[in-house]
Amino acid sequence: FPSHDKQWNESGLARLSKHMQEHDCGTITAFRSKEGCAGAEDKPYTRADNQKRNKQLYAQLQMKGYMVTAVHGAYIENYNTPNAKGVRENVYFVVDGRDTGSLREDLINLGGKFEQDSILFIPKGGKGSILIGTNDCPQAYPGFGKEIKFNDRKMGQGGEFMT
Fold this sequence. Notes:
By secondary structure, the protein is an alpha+beta fold. It is built from three helices and six strands, in the order αβαββαβββ. A hairpin with a 6-residue loop joins β4 and β5 (129-133).
């Protein structure tokens, strides 16, 4: 059923694109390979740990009134370091459907709480997105409080960092 799958994917991408045009959006997860700064002495998170953490994150996003959709993502923890590790994660695509204007700050705070290297914020209109560092560990990319702006997005294509 390849044509059906392609049609569904295009439909899903169109829906996400519409949300990005009309509201602030972003992506976040609670998945992480280890506690803390992921040093040798830090406790690894199991898949069950990460699923539980993600459920807690989902509940907090719901309590704040955001629309939340589960999607798959790929990320490189400790990017550009000897400890770089590609990971697959369950990610949430979050939409500020009520246009509260609080999504960026809420994602940053939750990214810090769940030990994430960064969150992705997509301003209303969908023109560009911003990777924002939420972790003060030395190897965290892009670095605590630092921002990397992207002026375009590639829908339906893969990359090193993708949702």
